[in-house]
Design brief:
The complex is a heterodimer of chains A (about 475) and B (about 200).
Chain A (H helix, E strand, L loop, with lengths): L7 H9 E4 L5 E4 L2 E4 L5 H10 L9 E3 L23 H16 L3 E2 L10 H8 L7 E4 L13 E4 L2 H10 L1 E4 L3 E8 L8 H12 L7 E6 L1 H5 L2 H9 L8 E3 L4 H7 L8 H12 L11 E6 L6 E3 L7 E3 L13 H14 L14 E4 L7 H11 L10 E4 L4 H9 L2 H8 L2 E2 L20 E4 L14 E4 L2 H10 L6 H4 L1
Parallel strand pairs in A: 3-4, 3-6, 4-5, 6-7, 9-10, 9-12, 10-11, 15-16, 15-18, 16-17, 18-19
Antiparallel strand pairs in A: 1-2, 2-8, 13-14
Helix pairs in contact in A: 2-5, 6-8, 12-14, 12-15
Chain B lengths: L5 E4 L1 E3 L7 H4 L19 H4 L16 E3 L12 H9 L3 E4 L4 H9 L3 E4 L2 H11 L4 E4 L4 E3 L5 E3 L4 H9 L3 H6 L2 H14 L1 H5 L4
Parallel strand pairs in B: 2-3, 3-4, 4-5
Antiparallel strand pairs in B: 1-6, 6-7, 7-8
Classes of the chains: A alpha/beta (about 475), B alpha/beta (about 200).
The complex binds iron/sulfur cluster (SF4).
Iron/sulfur cluster binds next to α4 of chain A.
């Protein structure tokens, strides 16, 4: 048993099981817990009511992101501006109270390090390879990009982790998504994960943890790996991860919360041992040729509704399953699209470049690269670029990217979740389209009646320039 | 959590199928910071209908809700369970529930009872005028007319509900095992054990 070849997931799982019960559920130790303002207030309230403490405050990091407006947070004399929405203000105030009360490290709304939880975790070196990481947000799988086993949890589980530093879990099955070959020019990690979700479907990963393997991921930057793992949940998988390697170690080394000195050396040695063993078995495997992946966009209201930019809006009858046909009809109706329309002819009025999927420095660079020396098309009524953290923002500004973006005619904002979920003032108006780098094109996700097309940052920038969904390769080659 | 033994009283004969969590508590109620008070937003869209059952004074504070198939589908929001609790609902009877909802209900001490549709139909009829009683110990639902329907429940859930044990409390009772695991982490994976100071 001990020498049976194991997968990355199995090794991390085994290292964290506290005990296994007769019914097969295990009590699993949680190494890192990220907390934000929306899913935590009731968890802290419950602790307070039951007179319970946080078991290991040093394993939790709190940062507000979901509700914060992305407009200026300080006035010209450096005083904090109030949040107009009283409920958002109240949630933020609750986190500001709860973190110190329970001795939890808190990054405040106006701190330089503030940002989206899933951007801040890796950036600070809080998220580490081989760690179990949870957060009350379904895109927590992002941290799998550094080789962590990370997944989203609900408010009761947030309370459970705060009080016990553990969760009761059932072991998942393993799904290998192997991508060999090389992505073509203009094709990014976002196009790849949209393509993968298209192949798997939104339920293809249900019950599984995905390990992304193969040449493409081995060469990928950590930023891009975070983008891929982030959207694992859209294929139904609670978690998705990529084996940590030298690229990961180089990314983490020297980050403020990453191990140092002797700890670092020990950590790297352990991290190296985590890669899936030769001969380890996955419960399911799929293979994709990187050469088949084109710049990809969504046409519907489910992330599996993908098509390459050269394609057309599909007809409901082209789907075999009758329940899917109905769903497609509803989707097309909501999206205001007619089957057979080339995706390139779809005009957009809004641009959103941001969210935990695509708001890291690489994404800012990719967008700026396309926007450099160009102007936003008159079709575009609203377009914002929202860096994932204050540090990403500062880095982008040091590189002059903000100027390129502003000169092109897009707004440059403060970090936060922004138009990813319409819980804050950034929303897409009803009936209008948005080329968005976020992760969910659900009905109403970006605002009631809003029509979302998921794309990569470069594709969003291209759409900003032409006023319609566009193959970015036409602008860059 | 309050231990559950017998839940007796008026049962709201709602009966609707595929009630999703957005119907139980609409999204715009999610920005709260407490579990209390959500009852005011519960079934908001249904309450907008004339003559709806939820605004019938007969059923104010009723401890039981009767619903149709697939109750609690849709988003995983735990607010759905909190909203029901805040309305005073301690048990929901339906032919089936979404897994996530029944998990959330259980975590909050709400009993979910599955009964076949014909029995639900009978209860819907009785509930208009008469109280309904649920006994967790004997796993039965009874009415003043000698109806007696038995239901299944996971033994672990039954134990937790009848003892008033919440999951956090149960896990806290495993403190020694957790502490042991922590000790070995400190020795083998010290950088993970260290974390960050406040
Ligand atoms: S950007 Fe969107 S998906 Fe990411 S953490 Fe924020 S709300 Fe969740």
């Amino acid at each position: 048993m001990a020498n049976r070849p194991r997968t990355l997931y199995e090794k991390i799982w085994d290292a964290h099981v506290v005990e296994t019960r007769d019914d097969g559920t295990s009590l699993v130790y949680i190494d890192r817990h990220l907390v934000h303002e929306v899913t935590s207030p009731q968890a802290f309230e419950a602790l307070r009511m039951a007179g319970r403490k946080v078991r290991k405050p040093e394993l939790t990091l709190a940062v507000p992101d979901h509700n914060l407006p992305t407009t200026a947070r300080l006035d010209t004399s450096g005083n904090r501006l109030p949040i107009a929405d009283p409920e958002s203000a109240q949630q933020l105030a609750a986190l500001e109270r709860n973190a110190p009360e329970f001795s939890i490290r808190y990054i405040g709304a106006t701190d330089a390090e503030q940002g989206i939880v899933h951007v801040v975790g890796p950036e600070q070196g809080f998220s580490l390879p081989g760690a179990t990481i949870v957060c009350g947000d379904s895109h927590t799988a992002a941290h799998g990009g550094v080789g962590a086993l990370a997944f989203g949890i609900g408010t009761s589980e947030v309370e459970h982790v705060l009080a016990t530093q553990t969760l009761l879990l059932k072991r998942s099955k393993t799904l290998e998504v192997r991508v060999d070959g090389q992505l073509g020019p203009g094709v990014t990690s976002k196009d790849l994960i949209l393509h993968i979700i298209g192949v798997l479907g939104t339920a293809g990963g249900t019950g599984y943890v995905i390990e992304y393997r193969g040449e493409v991921f081995e060469k990928m930057s950590v930023e891009s790996r975070l983008t891929v793992c982030n959207m694992s949940i859209e294929a139904g998988a609670r978690s998705g991860l990529i084996a940590p390697d030298d690229i990961t170690f180089a990314y983490l080394k020297g980050r403020p919360m990453a191990p140092k000195g002797e700890d670092w050396d020990k950590a790297v040695a352990w991290w190296r041992s985590l890669a899936t063993d030769e001969g380890a078995k996955f419960d399911k495997s799929i293979r994709i040729d990187a050469g088949d992946v084109e710049p990809t966009v969504t046409w519907g209201t489910s992330p599996e509704d993908v098509v390459s930019i050269g394609g057309v809006v599909p007809a409901p009858e082209s789907f075999a399953d009758t329940s899917k046909q109905d769903a497609v009809r509803k989707s097309l109706d909501y999206m205001g699209l007619v089957p057979g329309t080339p995706m390139r002819d779809v005009e957009v009025q809004n641009i959103f470049i941001g969210s935990c999927t695509n708001s890291r420095i690489e994404d800012m660079r990719a967008a700026a690269e396309v926007l450099r020396g160009r102007k936003v098309h008159p079709n575009i009524k609203w377009g914002i670029v929202v860096p994932g953290s204050g540090l990403v923002k500062a880095q982008a500004e040091a590189e002059g990217l903000d100027k390129i973006i502003i000169e092109a005619g897009l707004e440059w904002r403060e970090p936060g979740c922004s138009a990813c979920l319409a819980m804050n003032p950034d929303k897409v108006p009803a009936g209008e389209r948005c080329a968005s780098t976020s992760n969910r094109n659900f009905v109403g996700r970006q605002g009631p009646g809003a029509r979302t097309h998921l794309v990569s940052p470069a594709m969003a920038a291209a759409a900003a320039v032409t006023g319609r969904l566009t193959d970015v390769r036409e602008l860059t080659s | 959590m309050e231990p559950v033994s017998t839940i007796e009283g008026r049962a709201i004969p709602f009966g609707r199928k595929n009630v999703d969590t957005d119907v139980i508590i609409p999204a715009h109620w999610l920005k709260t910071i407490t579990r209390e008070g959500l009852g005011r937003g519960a079934f908001e869209s249904v309450r907008a209908e004339d003559g709806n059952i939820f605004d019938d004074p007969e059923f104010a504070g009723a401890p039981i809700l009767i619903a149709g198939d697939n109750f609690g589908c849709g988003s995983s929001r735990e607010h759905a369970a909190w909203a029901l609790l805040d309305m005073g609902v301690k048990a929901v009877i339906a032919p089936s529930f979404s897994d996530i909802f029944s998990g959330n209900a259980f975590k909050n001490g709400i009993l979910t009872v599955c009964l076949p549709q014909e029995q639900i139909d009978r209860l819907m009829e009785v509930a208009r005028e008469q109280p309904v009683s649920i006994d967790l110990d004997t796993q039965t639902v009874t009415t003043p007319f000698q109806d007696r329907f038995t239901f299944e429940i996971d033994p672990f859930r039954k134990h937790c509900l009848s003892e008033g044990l919440d999951e956090v409390g149960l896990t806290l009772a495993r403190d020694a095992a957790i502490a042991n695991h922590e000790k070995s982490r400190e020795a083998n994976l010290p950088w993970l054990a260290k974390g960050v100071a406040a």
